[in-house]
Amino acid sequence: MTQPPSASADGVWRHLRLAPGLAQPTQPVADGAPAAMVVQQGVLRWLGPQQALPAAFAALPQHDACGAWATPGLIDCHTHLVYGGQRAHEFALRLAGASYEEVARAGGGIVSSVRATRAASEDALYASALPRLQALMAEGVCAIEIKSGYGLALEHERKQLRVARRLGREQGITVRTTFLGAHALPPEYTGRSQDYIDHLCQQMLPALHDEGLVDAVDVFCERIAFSLAETEQVFATAQRLGLPVKLHAGQLSDMGGAQLAARYQALSCDHIEHLSPAGIAAMQAAGTVAVLLPGAYYTLRDTHLPPIEQLRAAGVPMAVSTDHNPGTSPALSLLLMANMACTLFRLTVPEALAGITQHAARALGLQDTHGLLAAGRSADFVLWPVEELAELSYWLGQRPACTVVRQGRWV
Ligand code: NIG
Ligand code: FE
Question: I need a labelling partner for 151 at 20 to 30 A (CA). Which of 16, 53, 255, 374 fits?
């Protein structure tokens, strides 16, 4: 297939295989039979067995997918993509024996990225985030969540969120922004956590919401971050503003965050290495997605596994994401995360693939528009020229060459 730069993907895409469970064909495709998809004006109009292709589409431009597997565009549902600087020195400190908590308590960690982010201009933040976004996009990512949380003051949180919006606009990718002002206590509020949360709820969040910069609200609920009561205050503010919530929960300890998040119908609880049966039951009842972040688990050399078997048994949807951030997960490959979710967390290959598509969409509230190949949806899909779909989570350090159609454009 020759590839003009960002051409319209309109036409009939023939000779492809639809990823099982990730496509809703008009009629079932027999095992091994070729499938086809029709794109018109950037929208998926029809998909099904190639031999059942309605004659009405015969005059459209024809594209040969050469037997490739088709999946929905990948979705990275938890990232901290926009920040200043990097933290390689902390990696070295941890290798020498320091824990993530020790580094954070000694003034490193999140707060060191806050210093670098505050010092950076909006243009500089855009320029440093762009190649990271492009790395993810080259691998088939068509929608991404980007959190704030390295500004921790109104003007700097605003800067991060504006950069996130601009990345979406200028790169032609769906970006969902999440306000994570409650990521860490800013140094100027040392010893005054409650004052910061009051300021966040009374000033920061309402102002950023008014500016249209916030799609969801997140909190880092942890003994080195914010308490359950502080988390609830932020959630109550979000609820008043009509914004959905998510939670960084159970990364280092179980504070009961999952039950609280479920009471607020949270879209997702993320990390959850430490999660009780009551937390799982609450998430199941609320339809809250469990977002698994094997990159952070790996980078911190964590040994406490998330309760995968219990989540599976309870039917809690499991998403998988990079958690890209400069501290705990400098990861820029969603397929590698799928691999690690299988190897480290024992997800099956289909679970991992649903985790970076269908369930990731739900974790962003995008389940009606993203994460599934279905007629009527925007044409966001990836064609993978691999023999077996399982290769997507099999290769290490080499991404299968893929054809990406994003928002109806072939890029
Ligand atoms: O998801 N856990 C809190 N937030 C990030 C880490 C942020 C950092 O260390 O800069 C995470 O792992
Ligand atoms: Fe995170």
Answer: 255
Asked whether residue 5 carries a pLDDT value surpassing 70, the answer given is no
Q: Report whether residue 328 contacts ligand 1, using a CB cutoff of 6 Å.
A: yes
Q: Are 374 and 356 contacting, i.e. CB atoms less than 8 angstroms apart?
A: no
Which atom, in ligand 1's list, is nearest to the CA of 180? 4
Q: Which of 86, 255, 80, 265 is nearest to 181 (CA)?
A: 80
Give the model confidence (pLDDT) of 104-120 as tens digits. 888 889 999 999 999 99
The predicted model gives 194-203 an average pLDDT of 98
> Which candidate, 314, 202, 207, 206, places its Cα nearest to that of 262?
314
Residue 33 tokens read as: 């039979």
Helix, strand, coil percentages (3-state) for the chain, rounded to 5, are 40, 20, 40
Instruction: Please report where in the chains the tokens 């969409």 appear, as a residue.
Output: 361
Q: Which residues pair with 248 in a beta bridge?
A: 220, 270
Residue 152 identity (one-letter amino acid): L
Work out the average pLDDT over 171-197. Answer: 97
Q: Got the DSSP string for 380-394? A: -EEEE--SSGGGGGT
Whether the full predicted model's pTM is greater than 0.85, yes or no, is: yes
Residue 59 structure tokens: 């005059």
* DSSP conformation class of 6: T
Of all residues in the chain, the percent with pLDDT exceeding 90 is: 94
Residues 6+ apart with CB under 8 A from 73: 140, 141, 142, 143, 357, 370, 380, 381, 382, 404, 405, 406
- The pLDDT of residue 1 is above 50: no
- Residue 132, SS3? helix
> Measured in angstroms, how far is the CA atom of residue 164 from the centroid of ligand 2?
16
Residue 251 CB less than 6 A away from ligand 1: yes
Model pLDDT for residues 334-370, shown as the tens digit of each residue: 999 999 999 999 999 999 999 999 999 999 999 999 9
Measuring CA to CA, how many Å separate 12 from each of 172, 361, 378, 399?
22, 26, 15, 26
Lookup result for tokens 């029709």: 38
